[in-house]
Design brief:
two-stranded antiparallel sheet; 292 residues; globular; mainly alpha
């Protein structure tokens, strides 16, 4: 037998495993966590605070006036209760102005701000799907706006509804419906304008024209064009009735023809899903060339 030392066999090589790319959901949550704080402490938050403080300021003035004048509020000589005034505030301030404005200013900037600040390339170099960047920032927008809009609505509710002998308990179910409706509106407008921000140049201008030009215009006329707006479906979720014997009702006659609640909810969910899917595809396919 040979006494020659045996050559040890080399250890088996462990195959090199490439790092796994996180799922879209996990990546979305990472971007959401990163973006929420930035949104809450951005310059837009100052604008958001002023915008949402205006209805509260008006509600305080109305409460003071109601306290000083025992006759209460009157429109064309008829007494108007606090619940009716709150409903008018929801219609004219929140639905027709505040919710579209927030959707335009935040939705169109989800990707545009990153391009303008030249930080989009840093996000895209992370091992995450590109579309998760948009989805995470959209969820951050929704959380930021909902958490700030809903307290503003509640403050207005508790300030205005008791005026004119109104009962908070009787009007509270309508408040819950209003909060849900506003959250749906913020989701729909944000998704639509996120699509505008990823597909078009000058998205802010296009968004403002759509929200305050196209939508109010087509709602005034009969036909099918109003079905191409978010406001047409959102108005069906409002539970407040406007006084028919006052001049205010003339401002809201355009909202007489509305679809059913079930149809509106289905269409709004479809709008959000389709707009986010198309926005995600646009982010995945677009080449972002940053100007020097």
């Amino acid at each position: 037998m040979s006494d020659a030392p045996r050559t040890p066999h080399p250890a088996p090589r462990t195959p090199h495993l490439a790092p796994r790319t996180p799922s879209v959901l996990a990546s979305t949550m990472r971007i959401f966590d990163l973006s929420l704080g930035q949104m809450l402490w951005s310059r837009r938050s100052v604008f958001l605070g002023l915008l949402l403080g205006a209805p509260v300021f008006l509600a305080v003035i109305l409460r003071i006036v109601d306290t000083l004048h025992a006759s209460g509020f009157r429109v064309n000589g008829a007494a108007v209760g606090g619940s009716t005034i709150f409903g008018m505030t929801i219609w004219l301030l929140f639905i027709r102005f505040i919710v579209p404005v927030l959707g335009v200013f935040y939705g169109t900037s989800l990707i545009a701000d990153e391009v303008e600040d030249k930080t989009i390339t840093y996000l895209f170099t992370r091992p995450i799907p590109r579309r998760a960047v948009l989805f995470g920032k959209y969820v951050a927008y929704l959380a930021c706006t909902v958490l700030l809009v809903l307290p503003s609505v509640m403050l207005v509710f508790f300030l205005i509804v008791p005026t004119g002998g109104g009962s908070i308990g009787a009007a509270f179910p309508a408040l819950v419906a209003d909060l849900g409706m506003l959250a749906v509106g913020l989701a729909a407008y944000g998704a639509v304008f996120a699509l505008v921000g990823t597909r078009l140049k000058r998205p802010l201008v296009v968004g403002l024209v759509f929200a305050f030009g196209w939508e109010p215009a087509v709602l005034l006329f009969p036909g099918y064009l109003k079905r191409l707006t978010v406001a047409y479906y959102l108005q069906a979720l409002v539970t407040h009735e406007m006084p028919q014997d006052s001049a205010v009702s003339l401002l809201l006659q355009v909202f007489h023809e509305v679809p059913s609640v079930a149809t509106s909810l289905l269409v709004l969910v479809a709008i959000v899903a389709a707009a986010l899917w198309l926005s995600g595809r646009a982010v995945e396919q677009r080449e972002y060339v940053l100007e020097q």
